[in-house]
Amino acid sequence: QVQLVESGGGLVQVGGSLRLSCAASGSIFSINSMGWYRQVPGKQRELVATITSGGSTNYADSVKGRFTISRENAKNTVYLQMNSLKPEDTAVYYCSLGELYGPRRAWWGQGTQVTVSS
């Protein structure tokens, strides 16, 4: 059974920083992509950043230069370093994992709240 657990969310003021973590457990194909998505009430979930097991990254334009995604493949753990936070970054942040080969399954974490206060 695969489980993704996020941590590190919280309340910060404008310009502050947070570091999110997501640890995946269970049997997972080694070639995969992990990432972060966020969602606010009344809006669709949107991509924040992703990183493959090979190290390829992509970012939403709104977070480029402020957020950095990284991972430790041996632990199936992904991180999101968020700097220069803005009120519009306020959302529930969800961790994702998708297998790129083999069964090509995908999973979501439970979400962690990030609130940026102006």
Kindly summarize this structure in a few lines:
The chain has 118 residues and is an all-beta fold. The protein is 0% helix and 55% strand.
For this entry, give a set of tags.
single chain, 118 residues, mainly beta, four-stranded antiparallel beta sheet, 11 strands, globular
Output the structural class.
mainly beta
The low-pLDDT segments are none
Order of helical and strand elements: EEEEEEEEEEE
Our Rg estimate from Cα atoms comes to 14 Å
Shape: globular
What's the mean pLDDT score? 96
What is the tally of helical segments? 0
- The oligomeric state is single chain
Largest sheet: 7 strands, mixed
Helix content: under 10%
State the end-to-end distance: 41 Å
Percentage of β-strand residues? over 45%
Q: What is the number of beta strands?
A: 11
Task: Give your account of this protein's structure.
The structure is a single chain. The chain is mainly beta and 118 residues long. The protein has no helices and eleven strands. Strands 2, 4, 5, 6, 9, 10 and 11 form a seven-stranded mixed β-sheet that branches. It has a four-stranded antiparallel β-sheet with strand order 1-3-8-7, with no helix packed on it. Strand 9 and strand 10 form a beta hairpin. The mean pLDDT is 96.
